[in-house]
Write a structure and sequence with these properties.
Shape: globular
Order of helices and strands: EHEHEHEHHHEHEHEEEEHEH
Structural class: alpha/beta
CATH superfamily of the largest domain: NAD(P)-binding Rossmann-like Domain
Number of domains: 2
Number of strands: 11
Helix content: 25-40%
Largest sheet: 6 strands, parallel
CATH architecture of the largest domain: 3-Layer(aba) Sandwich
Strand order of the largest sheet: 1-11-8-7-5-6
Radius of gyration: 19 Å
CATH topology of the largest domain: Rossmann fold
CATH class of the largest domain: Alpha Beta
Bound molecules: guanine
Length: 292
């Protein structure tokens, strides 16, 4: 059994990007500039956005953080999106989700210029992904694919079960792993809250991806001997033993599931750092797509 070190792989990618930035500098080309829009003070979202900005600093990208109070009006946010769309100094930007209930997330996502949509959430980019046209792949699924690629995990012909059908993770990942590509060519089952006989279906998985958001959801009896298990869950749970008073918990009962696996990702230190690495890769790609 191998514990996949997502942090180390993400560091490797950031080093590669750092070199790419230095090469651009030498050639007198523009340095990638990422902007992140954060609404409200949700502590997890604030940490995610801060980590994205920190990754930019590490690599040598420029970054701008725009922070609104959670009472911001939808039209103010949409006007900011439009300003970022037309700002030539910004190569790509994200609006951190979730947004407060009074703001229509889909409306905001659709307002982002698809050529600056480094999160890959715009319907145009999702459509491009389906038909293999150039565009941005959503950061978490793309990070998982990069992890599969760099760990030489064979996907062709494998049964892949994904639990959770969110627009951000499960749904796009099911398409990416089912495509005629490498990684890809899996026989994908996308399981969700209405799935019957979930345990029996999950037990068929050669590659199991858990993206439910419920700590310990995947128990050892649900996992086939020799499976590869990728845990996307990042739920904060109270833990008075830690300095912060909480810790991150994945969807998988790691202690009991790990001994059955050939490979497994931990939480933290598995998929999380890969999401940031692939967002950074998308930022560089944003420049390349525009021929900058
Ligand atoms: N919220 C949870 N994951 C993500 C992500 O990858 N991008 C954005 N913008 N918001 C998120």
């Amino acid at each position: 059994m191998e514990i996949i070190d997502g942090k180390a792989i993400s560091k490797e990618i950031k080093e590669e990007l750092k070199i790419a930035v230095q090469e651009r500098k030498v050639k007198g080309k523009k340095i990638p500039h990422l902007a992140a829009v954060l609404v409200g003070a949700d502590s997890a979202s604030m940490t995610y956005v801060q980590n994205k900005v920190k990754a930019c600093e590490e690599i040598g990208f420029e970054s701008t953080l725009i922070h609104y109070d959670d009472s911001v009006a939808e039209d103010v946010l949409l006007a900011k999106v439009e300003a970022l769309n037309t700002d030539r100094s910004i190569d790509g930007f994200i609006v951190q989700l979730p947004l407060p209930k009074h703001i229509d997330e889909l409306k905001v996502t659709q307002a982002i210029d698809p050529l600056k949509d480094i999160d890959g959430f715009h319907p145009r980019n999702l459509g491009n992904m389906v038909v293999h046209l150039p565009g941005f792949l959503p950061a978490t699924p793309a990070g998982i694919l990069e992890l599969i690629r760099r760990k030489n995990i064979v996907t062709e012909g494998k049964n892949c079960v994904i639990i959770g059908r969110s627009n951000i993770v499960g749904m796009p990942l099911s398409i990416m792993l089912g495509r005629n590509a490498n990684p890809g060519n899996c026989t994908v089952t996308l399981a969700h809250s209405k799935t019957n006989n979930l345990s029996a279906i999950v037990r068929q998985a050669d590659i199991l991806i858990a993206a439910v958001g419920q700590p310990g959801f995947v128990t050892a009896d649900m996992v086939k001997e020799g499976a590869v298990v990728i845990d996307v869950g990042t739920t904060r749970i109270e833990d008075p033993k830690t300095a912060k008073g909480w810790r991150l918990a994945g969807d998988v009962d790691f202690e009991k599931v790990a001994p059955k696996c050939t490979m497994i990702t931990p939480v933290p230190g598995g998929v999380g750092p890969m999401t940031i690495a692939s967002l950074m890769m998308n930022t560089l790609k944003a420049m390349e797509l525009k021929g900058k």
